[in-house]
Each structure stands twice: as C-alpha cells, then as structure tokens.
Amino acid sequence: MVSVISRVLDSINVLEKLRELCKDQVDYIVVKNLFHGEEEKFERYNDASLRQNMLAEGLVELVMPDLFYKSYDFIDRHALTFNEGQTHQGTNIVIKSRIKSWLTEFEAQIKPAFNLLGFDIQPDDCYYPAVVEKSKELRENEEKEKAKNQDANLTSENIAA
Domains of the chain: which residue ranges? Predict the structure, then answer.
C-alpha cells in the first residue's frame, strides 16, 4: 500500500484509516512528496506515534524529490505523465531537463522498495529513455489516428452536402 503524503494532518489521518482497513495484510510504503517542503518539515508525520508503530512493523519510507513548480504546472496543464512531459511538442529544453533530472533522482530514491512496488528487475540507465520513446510513439499514433478520423469526417460531410 503506497501512501504519498504532504505536510498536512489529513495525510496522517488517511494513512491511519488505510492501516485500519488493511491491517497487516499489505506492506506499507509512505512517500514524502517534497514538493510540499523539505523532509524535516514533515513534523506532523515524523512525530506521529502512528509512524513509530508502523516503522516497528516494517514500514518503508521514501521521498519524492521536489520538481520546480513550472514543470509540474506544464505537466498538469497538458494532463501528461512525467515521461510524456519530456516529449510533448510544447516542452522546452528547461522543462525537459528538469523532468529528466527529477525522474533520475526519483528512480534512485525508490530503489529500496523495488520489490514491494512489483519491479522484478531494477531499471538500468536506458529504462526511462525507452519509456519516453514508447510514449512519443504512442502519442504520434494517436495524433495520426485523430487526423485520419478528422479527414474521414470531412469526407462524409462533403458527401452529405
């Protein structure tokens, strides 16, 4: 069970409810999203007795590095995955660079939990470029299909006219 948290009290409340629901039937991973502040600033969570109890039971903690807000905003505005954010036609070199760096750092951060996350093989240096290339290919195919459908609609409209 992965729970991505911010610094708000509700993150602890949600984690507590998940623990009540799932009990010891799952492995727990808490990911501190550093977009919401430095790791030390997660005082509510860090000082919670829930955390201490879960650590004693094998809780795995990870951190999600901060990504500059303009890169986040670009990804959100276009409803992209992080990989797609690197290949989108509106992505500039700065956003591409920040996303690539963020992905590399996040991958390093999650390595301790690869087995719990279901990754059978740790990615090598070519993992993300392959995913980026596949995302680009899928996006291009979608655009071709959309253009093809638009052409078909125009043709049927001309026939009807």
Answer: 1-64, 67-161
